[in-house]
Amino acid sequence: MKPELATHDHGPHARVACVACHVGPGVNWFVRSKLSGTYQVYSVLFNKYPRPIATPIKNLRPARETCEQCHWPQKFSGNLDRIFTYFQGDASNSPYSIRLSIKIGGSDPTRGPVGGIHWHMMVGNQVEYVATDAAGRRFLGADHRPQGVVTVYRAPKFTNDISQLEIRKMDCMDCHNRPSHRYVPPTRR
Predict the structure, then answer these.
(1) Residue, of 99 and 67, whose pLDDT is higher
(2) Distance (Å, rounded) from C-alpha 96 to C-alpha 88?
(3) What is the tens place of the pLDDT at every residue in 37-77?
(4) Vertex 160, ends 154 and 162: CA angle to 5°?
(5) pLDDT of residue 33
(6) What is the 3-state secondary structure (H, E, C) of the chain?
(7) Is the peptide bond before 95 cis (omega within 30 degrees of 0)?
(8) Phi, psi (rounded to 5 degrees) for 163
(9) How are strands ordered across the β-sheet holding 126-131?
(10) How far from the centroid of its chain's Cα atoms is residue 168's Cα?
(11) CB 105 within 8 Å of CB 119
């Protein structure tokens, strides 16, 4: 776990204890983490754990119960503007920039319009999806709105029988899958 610890210690959540995200508050998850930890000790002793450690980790506590201790949908509002500067591989390392404007939005009407990229995290809205691979790249998804409207989205080549697949509820970690363990390529340092 040394690479994970190093990236955590130099990341945006460096002041947050590991257990705040990996366990969170409450007795039930504390007990679950101890039981899981027993298997982890066995795995380390007998060299049974995968390398690299696979992501996403399937048995993490839902982000709503951990991440939202500090980040909550009402907190996010407005747009987020970012400019990313890169350099080409030509002889003069010519710079080029990409400007992104992301409509973060939120769910508090007193702070601006309700909506934006965190729309699915608002109480009453729910997004479910089926992933056809471990990374969740090809999918069939549906969003459920409080008014009873269900919209289904299907990737063009998605032909799987969904009765045989796991239906997942969208979670913070589906988009923010490495918030504390960012591995940055050397070209971006």
Answers:
(1) 99
(2) 7
(3) 888 889 889 988 877 766 656 667 777 788 877 877 666 56
(4) 80
(5) 83
(6) CHHHHHHHHCCCCCCCCHHHHHCCCCHHHHHHHHHHHHHHHHHHHCCCCCCCCCCCCCCCCCHHHHHHHCCCHHHCCCEEEEEEEEECCCCCCCEEEEEEEEECCECCHHHCCCECCCHHHCCCCEEEEEECCCCCCCEEEEEECCCCCEEEEECCCCCCCHHHCCCEECCHHHHCCCCCCCCCCHHHC
(7) no
(8) -65, -20
(9) 150-154, 139-144, 126-131, 168-169
(10) 13
(11) yes
Under 8 Å between Cβ of 121 and 105: no
Distance separating alpha carbons of residues 188 and 30, to the nearest angstrom:
37
pLDDT at 107 over 60: yes
Q: How far apart are CA 18 and CA 5, in angstroms?
A: 9
Work out the pLDDT band at 83, boundaries 50, 70, 90: very high
Residue 31 tokens, joined: 């007990």
Identity at 7, one-letter amino acid code:
T
| Pairwise CA distance, residues 109 & 105, whole Å | 10
* Residue 68, both tokens: 């939202």
pLDDT at 8: 84
Q: For position 77, what pLDDT does the model report? A: 65
Mean pLDDT of the chain: 77
